[in-house]
Amino acid sequence: MEKLSPKFVVDSMLGRLARWLRLVGLDTLYFKIVSDEELLERTRSENRFLLTRDKKLHQQAIREELNSVLIPASSNSEVLAFLSKTFNIQFDIDPSSSRCPLCNGKITSVEKESIRSKIPSSTFTRYDQFWQCIQCRKIYWIGKHYESMRKIIEEIGSSI
Prior knowledge:
alpha/beta, Rossmann fold, four-stranded parallel sheet, 6 helices, elongated
């Protein structure tokens, strides 16, 4: 049986957090420009948790009996550790279950040869595994950036 994971709506102040939640496979809506009313409506209609740093928005969501979490102004790893404790989220990046950090679409494994013309030749030569967003078609691979993300995940684990 598949584990049910929380779904989120993240306000415009938390774009980096939205990308992290998507990378660990959590369905996370994020809009650079959006009204508070739209955030509340999406929270309500899609049974999501609102994540915000805006105290007024958080209080309004609570008044409307919506699920809302006020995110502390802390470092990225501290916020992720806070959410890990709050929602029992295991922060690990597995491309087979990640979502696209740009658009929230699902990512699927693709044959290396099928994307040859869509990536730099040096990347094609250096890496063997690739994934592509089924929505925006962005291509991903585990490159150097992955190591820095692993370090942040280690920080999260040590602060829980």
